[in-house]
Amino acid sequence: MPIDPQLLEQVLRTPESRDVTESPIVRVVILADAANASDLVPALNESGTVEANNARRILALFEPAAVPHLLAALGPAGLNARMEGLEALWALLVGEEKGTVRETLTVAKPSLDVLLEDTRPLPDEMPEYIERDFRGRICDLAYIVVQQLLDPEVEQSMFRSLDDRGRDAEIRRLKNMGFGLRIV
Amino acid sequence: MTQVIIVAQGIEIRDAGQGFQLQNFLKAQCDPQKGSVWTYPKGAKGKPSHEVRVVYDIAEFTKALDTPDILVVYEGHSRYGQGPAFGPAGMPKVPDKKTFPTNPWGIHFRMGYDATDTECVGDLVHHSVTPVEYDLVTSGAKAFLPDALVAASRNAKARQKDIAAKKIKAKAVCGTKGAWRLFDSCAPVLAATTTARGDQPLEGRHYYARLPRKPEDEYLTTVQVGSADLDKSSLRCRLLFMASCSSHVHFYKPLNNRRKAVKSACKFLLTAEVCATAHAKTFLEQVLVKGHDLTTRKGIKKLLKALNGVSRSGSVGIY
């Protein structure tokens, strides 16, 4: 059942001076159902707002079961939400067992494929002083996150050095290979 | 026992949002001691549970890596893989030569591959640094390079052969993708660019890639890095968090090699992408205030969720 919109709005407006992750609404209501992850995605559409920051913090607390819901909600979402959502995907799966990562990504593959096909540049609202050693697209971020989750030892420099065409070919290869599990 | 945490803040970052957020957190949660030392919890009557030392120079960072059982956070620039760089507060983009005869932007804790790629305009000219060039054409078979530079070197050597064999006409060299091209011949205006320090960082330098950018194109070159500083370290610290852009890409292999060589048990927290957030503050919040035990899987998982629960986290993982 979706979260009551008023309750969600209330929790997302929690001022930054208070730790939203300690809110009983988050602990008892929102995190109780993995499907609730999808209700947080619309708040990610605008960057840097209190609502977006809180949604991101809460999303990170979900367990891997929330991944398919998160990724499905990113389909109709805007550019910023897709970027934030991919970073949240990392938060949900980093540190999990290899089998869990592969299984979760395999189940969510149709939604992930949508992100792996999004060739729009990543939004960049970072301060000028950040030394951007990679400037990619949504699909590049999706590829990097997935590859690094599947193999934490993977060396990403080659992928990063390719032009768009070269990276598109690598992304196609990943999509065709799947994530290491066959769904019977 | 009091857990010691060293936060080493790098050049420029100490003056940016990350620096302010760290100081605000420490003022709110800890008691100041002599120097840049803070103890937690605030107003502790007995022995504090944690001691946080904020350091701003390469010597202190080096010492921290060799201090048994401590937690070390480097929050700063990766400098495109050249390594951590430190400097006094308020360091300008281009420090003047009189005050800084040696440019702090060009001094690094060496902990990388034999070479890295860097931006000619966005780094070398921008900060007026003149690192030693790494010649992609004469690079040896045993060179320790990231995969991207192994490919770039192979490509540059092949193009060089084609040029020598006149398969590529002299006037077409500058437009040849992947060739090791001299700025003086192919981009003479850039080669002659003189910085406010009076340097000409691109004079006599080569590039191997030209990237379309606005308002002007960027060029990539390769510079020598190596791991001279890391090679002196025994990595006795319990955990090293490299809260800098793409630290997994730039430093994981050299760090892992060193960890194996000295049989260290140090764990690394590294980023897979560009990061632009106040990781040191979040780290301290989780370890001090929330009390996560980083010797347990559960504690590490909670820390990772918090670090990755903020925008532009850079995808922090444990290695």
List the helices and strands and how they pair.
The complex is a heterodimer of chains A (about 180) and B (about 325).
Chain A: H1 5-12, H2 24-29, H3 37-40, H4 50-60, H5 67-74, H6 79-93, H7 98-107, H8 109-116, H9 138-150, H10 157-161, H11 164-177
Helix pairs in contact in A: 5-6, 6-9
Chain B: E1 3-9, H1 17-29, E2 31-32, E3 37-40, E4 50-55, H2 58-65, E5 71-75, E6 115-119, H3 120-127, H4 147-164, E7 181-182, H5 183-186, H6 188-191, E8 206-207, E9 209-211, E10 218-224, E11 239-243, H7 247-261, E12 267-271, H8 279-289, H9 297-307, E13 316-318
Parallel strand pairs in B: 1-4, 1-5, 5-11, 11-12
Antiparallel strand pairs in B: 2-3, 3-4, 6-10, 7-8, 9-10, 12-13
Helix pairs in contact in B: 1-8, 8-9
Poorly predicted regions of chain B: none
Q: What is the total domain count of chain B?
A: 2
Residue runs with pLDDT of under 50 for 5 or more positions of chain A: none
Write down the oligomeric state: heterodimer
Structural class of chain B: alpha/beta
CATH fold name of chain A: Serine Threonine Protein Phosphatase 5, Tetratricopeptide repeat
Notes on the protein architecture:
The complex is a heterodimer of chains A (184) and B (319). Chain A is mainly alpha-helical and 184 residues long. Chain A has a single domain (14-177), classed as Serine Threonine Protein Phosphatase 5, Tetratricopeptide repeat, CATH 1.25.40. Helix content of chain A is 55%, strand content 0%. Chain A contains 11 helices and no strands. Chain A has helices at 5-12, 24-29, 37-40, 50-60, 67-74, 79-93, 98-107, 109-116, 138-150, 157-161, 164-177. In chain A, α5 packs antiparallel against α6 (79-93) and α6 packs parallel to α9. Chain A starts with a helix and ends in a 7-residue tail after the last helix. The model of chain A has no long low-confidence stretch (mean pLDDT 95). By secondary structure, chain B is an alpha/beta fold. Chain B folds into 2 domains: 3-85 and 228-318, no CATH class; 113-224, no CATH class. Chain B is built from 9 helices and 13 strands. In chain B, the strands form 3 sheets. An 8-stranded mixed β-sheet of chain B has the order 2-3-4-1-5-11-12-13, with helices on both faces. Chain B has a 3-stranded antiparallel β-sheet with strand order 6-10-9. In chain B, strands 7-8 form a two-stranded antiparallel ribbon. The longest helix of chain B is centred in the middle third of the chain and has 18 residues, at 147-164. The radius of gyration of chain B is 22 Å and the shape is elongated. The two termini of chain B are 26 Å apart.
